[in-house]
Design brief:
The chain is mainly alpha-helical. The chain is 47% helix and 5% strand. It has a domain of 33 residues. It has a two-stranded antiparallel ribbon with strand order 1-2. A hairpin with a 5-residue loop joins β1 and β2. It is elongated.
Length: 81
């Protein structure tokens, strides 16, 4: 299938380097990298009884107290950039 994608400069540079090192075209390199990431991902998305997709279980429990404490904290978007 033929498609057009836009990559940022660093991603394009990495894909170009990867392709050159493996003797592939950039398209083949990107395809290979995507397939590798799929193999590392969970095989199946799990859904809750009401149909929402769920994160894989980590063994941690989120309590009401944890949610309340986070809700009381001031949101600082700079923490997420």
């Amino acid at each position: 299938m033929r498609t057009t994608i836009t990559l940022d400069d660093k991603t394009h540079a990495f894909a170009s380097y990867y392709a050159h090192a493996r003797g592939l075209t950039i398209s083949a390199a990107i395809d290979e990298l995507i397939r590798k990431s799929q193999a590392a991902a969970p095989a199946e998305i799990q859904y809750s009884p009401n149909g929402f997709p769920m994160f894989p279980p980590t063994g941690r429990t989120v309590t009401d107290e944890m949610v309340k404490r986070l809700a009381e904290e001031e949101f600082d978007p700079k923490q997420f950039t």
